[in-house]
Each structure stands twice: as C-alpha cells, then as structure tokens.
C-alpha cells in the first residue's frame, strides 16, 4: 500500500470524523487525491467501517463482555473457517480470532447481562459440533481499547503561556 | 512572644537596595506578564501560548529513569555528565548533522539548554562586550547577557526574508566591541530556519570579525521539508561555535531539564568550571533518560515531528484563510502570523483576543525587534483544539 494511504489510515484511526479536506491540509496534498484514496480503500474493504469507541461503563445500561476461549476440531478441507463462520454469524458475537496456543478461537461476546452471555455459551456455542470445550472469561473493566485509554487520560499539565 | 530587640531589621530600607543593579534593572519578561493575564482569567481559554510539546515523554524513556532509580542510581555524576550520555550525544551530532565532537572533553551535559547558554555567556563576556542577537528571538538571551555584564545588541530580522539573518544586517550591527553572536535557528518564535547557503556569508563575517558564536539548536530536529544545518558544520566554524541543544523539544522532555553544550575543549572546560561550582552536575535520572532517548527514541521522535508537521500545515492554511498573513514556518512548532492589517498593536490584539475570543497567544513584541505586529501561536495542540482556536480567531477578526 502506498504511503499516502497509510498516512490517511493513521489519521482516520485517530478520528474517523476527519474530512478529506482536513486530511488533505494536514498531509499537504490535494483534497481530491485524499477523497479518491479513501474511496478506493472503502471499495477494497481496507476501511471496513467507521465505528465509535464507546466506554460502556459510563452508560447506565452497561454491557457485559466475555472473551471465550474455544477449542475445536478442524473440518477436513476447510480447517477452522467453517466453524468460525458458524460462530461469527451470531449477532451476540463481536469478534472471532483464530489463535495459536492452548485454544483455537477467541470469541468476544457482548450481552446485556451475565445470564444472557452464559445462556449463549451453554445453548448456542457449546452444542455446536466440533466444539470440544469453552472457557469463559468475563471482562471486569476496560482500561484501553483500540489504542484508546478509557480513563485517567494524561491531563495537559502545561502552563497556558510559556517561553 | 518576646520581641528580640537585638535583631537587625532592614525594614527601613527597601529590599530593592540590596539587589544587584543588573537584576534590579531587569524588566520582567513580556511572556510572564501575559502569563499572569491569562492565569487571572477564569474563562475556558484555548491556549496557543506554550513553547513545549503536547506529547508526554515517550514511555520507554520514563521507564529507563524509573528503572535506574529502582536500582539506586541516585548519586552525583561526573561534572560534565555520564560518559555514555556524552558519547551518545557526540554520536548523534555526527550522525545527524556531521559535526564531530570528542565526548571526553568537547561535550558538557547541562541542566537544560538554558544553563548551557548562561554558562557560555558567563565564560565569554568581559563587561562591556557587545553580544549580537538576531531578533525576534527567545526571550532569555538579552537578560542573561546583561546579567553577565554584556551589552545585548538586537539585529532585526523580517518576515520578507523568512526571518533569516542576512549578511548586511549582521555587518551593520558589528562594532569593535562585538564579541559573541547568538543564533537560534530554527527560531522560537518565528519558525525561521537557515540553509547551508544562508549560513555561508554569515560564517564569512564571523571569521572576518573574529566572533564567537553560541548556536542554540534546540529545535534542530523540528524542521519540515529540509534537514537542519548546524552552524558548527559550516567549514571553519566548529572551533568558533558553542553548539547548544537539549532534549526538551524533540523528545518531549521539557520538565527533565536536560541540555548540553559542545565546542572547543578550552571553551567547554571554562564552562565546566562554572557548572561544577553552581549545579555540580545535571540530575542523574535525567541523564539516564536522555541516554535512553538518544539511543532508542529516534523513531518515536520522528513520529512526533510528523504530527507537528501535519498541524503546521493546518494552522498556516487556517490563518491565511481567515485573512492573516502568515509566512511558512520551516522549523520549531510556532506560526508567526502578522496582525498589522488589523491596526492593533501585538499587545492590544493578544489582549482583546484573550478577553473577547478566549484564545491565548503571545504578542510578538515580547520577542524583541521585529516582533511587533505579529503573534506567536504554538501548534503543539490537538487538531480539534487548533481547529476551534482558528474558528474563534476568525470570528474575532470579522468583528473587528
């Protein structure tokens, strides 16, 4: 990927609401060139979606998130992909990663209560053929996500005017 | 409580009478005055007034200092600094700017670049010597010259020359009493820089007039689109130059107060004498952190510089769009737009901008000759803060 596109991605990762015009100014390049690069990356699914990072602990209806370690038996010919697909199609599932190490898939589940997450694991995930075992880890507190520190951000301690 | 009648009370005499004349006559810094004004205002102010990075010191640098403390490294160091840091400084200056210094006797680690400049001036000045200072410039040069008994002589530089020092202006300012030339490029507050070609005629005059140069290169890393050229790297200038720099700006280490001076061993030895009788040595934890910054922090430094460059483009374009002339700063992290068209003085403009638009920026006149009619605006702020500040300044201008 060319350097311009990488720089655009860096700036959008910091703030997805930045306009092509602002990015063009910051990078010292033409606005239409930036707009074209963004369109291309959207079409190529390099930019998959513009999402908002939410600190749900600040919201009343706090969500429960669990990371589930799943051991599976891979399917002949399709390896882990088919089973991963079965799992990621559930709307409760926020992310699925194929892992090296002690287990095969790491599945992130989001629900409105512990009971709902537990029910998903026991009623939907565990009964899937080829799922050998699951180990559910509830997230107690999020400190940092996607490079963003949720709390105790370092304040600007600088004086308002200095030499 | 029993009153001790024997105590000598100096109360019938103003304390001012006890002060050294050079200190008594020293004017408070214009920045200080503006700082008080800003601090006394309780409003939600967006500041473009600071001369320091908005990044925290990179974590690995902080961690190196913490680790060193944990291991009990808390003792005095050699007066001129820990050997590994002096060596790292020499390597860095050679690799980056092609100036070669001998770590053992041509490098002195100081408490910030400011101490290095003070030591250099105190080592060189005989009372009455004239010290040439291109202005607008960093606010300390003139007062610390006076404190050393020297006579500061400002040389005005202009926006039409991108605030470069010209051969003619330098020649016009020189008298038989001229001894030292203080250079600061890239410049605080203008962002002006000097190229190799710009330096050559200046070097010719320096040699011809037998001047010593104190080259404050604290912003050397912060240049955009061109590589910094150290004055010491100009042929024949190394032995006439005391190169001063530090870690504050490029490595976001302002509070650590880590700086250094490099130059001819006899000059560095003289400076070291004063240094050993005043501060003894720079703090050891700062030296350890500085060593880590130089040896493992260059990548992080580049990332910060790229970010300043993005914000520089945003601010310069922003000022031009709202109708303020702004030369293209090629270094440091300041824009220096002209406010002459508004008919206000720098101080009036900055005060009204503060009270009416809630934006703090430093009036250009505090930086000496040539600063009147300008405003120093730091762009070491987040993109959203800069955008908001530009919007407020634009609204303010439309109401004038």
UniProtKB/TrEMBL annotation, chain A:
InterPro entries, A to Z: AsnC-type_HTH_dom, Dimeric_a/b-barrel, HTH-Siroheme_Decarb, Tscrpt_reg_AsnC-like, Tscrpt_reg_AsnC/Lrp_C, WH-like_DNA-bd_sf, WH_DNA-bd_sf
Any Pfam family: HTH_AsnC-type
Keywords: DNA-binding, Transcription, Transcription regulation
Lineage, opening ranks: Bacteria, Bacillati, Bacillota, Bacilli, Bacillales
Lineage: superkingdom: Bacteria
SMART domains: HTH_ASNC
Species of provenance: Paenibacillus roseopurpureus
Domain HTH asnC-type, residue spans: 1-81
Keyword hit for RNA-binding: no
Protein's name in the database: Lrp/AsnC family transcriptional regulator
PANTHER family: HTH-TYPE TRANSCRIPTIONAL REGULATOR PTR2, TRANSCRIPTIONAL REGULATOR, ASNC FAMILY
One Gene Ontology MF term: sequence-specific DNA binding
Record Gene3D superfamilies: 3.30.70.920, Winged helix-like DNA-binding domain superfamily/Winged helix DNA-binding domain
From TrEMBL, chain B:
Protein name (Swiss-Prot/TrEMBL): Aminotransferase
One term of GO molecular function: transaminase activity
PROSITE patterns reported for this sequence: AA_TRANSFER_CLASS_1 (PS00105)
One Pfam family in the UniProt entry: Aminotran_1_2
E.C. code: 2.6.1.-
Presence of keyword Lipid metabolism: no
Domain Aminotransferase class I/classII large: 44-393
